[in-house]
What does this fold into?
Amino acid sequence: MKLLCSLATLAVSILPLAFANDRIPGSMFRNDPHRVAMAAVPMWHFGRPRGMKPCTPQDAVQSDGSQTNGNDPEPQENIGRGCYDIGDWHGANSQGNPFPTYYTVKKCGDSWRVTYSLYFRHDSGHKSDWEWVSVVWWQDGNTDQWYRGYLLQSYHSGSKAEKWQDIQNTINGDWNKFDQNQKDRNHAKVYVGAYHHAMFTTRKTSNDNAGSTPGDEFRSNDWYFLPWDSTVQDTSRINPNWNWGQAKSSPSNMFDRICNTWECPAAGC
It folds into this structure.
């Protein structure tokens, strides 16, 4: 297949391939990390609890190169106050305004981990918020081909892991982005919790607030954003010494911690 001619509608700038969970060569992780990041960048989704717009991710760096400052949250009454505008809502799967997805690539023992981070000006508890997911790539036997094995997801103060083949909704690119219940494709549909921004691979709309347990947090597909090439960015513009207050999962912190965030269970992966 040929690449779509316009980046305005292009969500993934790699050639669409024919098979599920397409392999990539090991040399790409070192030689072309941006292409690796594009190979599994998530399709982000955001919900609209009680008709409110969410606090949408935005650039962590201002146009003059300075740090973006967080703002005080409104716990449940106006969750999007002072945040970047996601855009108009036209029903489920409204396309949201673009924002940066920051990535890092790191070798962790027998796996490569590509971590995707989003910056929010606040969550429902504090100024500034960093949240992330990380794709764990495994080597395919004795070949130099690598495949998506797990998706790690930030989950309040911790994280959770899910086998790639078990993720409820995955896609291969812009041309099938609205497919549902398709597994083991190249890009996961990730649903961002509306209040504390925990990451999920399923929706939950029965509870329109933060929930009494972490898993109850409202999340839905009112808006989506499937990143294109220029919105998927490395972290070179983000000063690792910047202080993000209570947000302890900045890209530099996660790069240092990602190898220790999760290990393959003793029973095997």
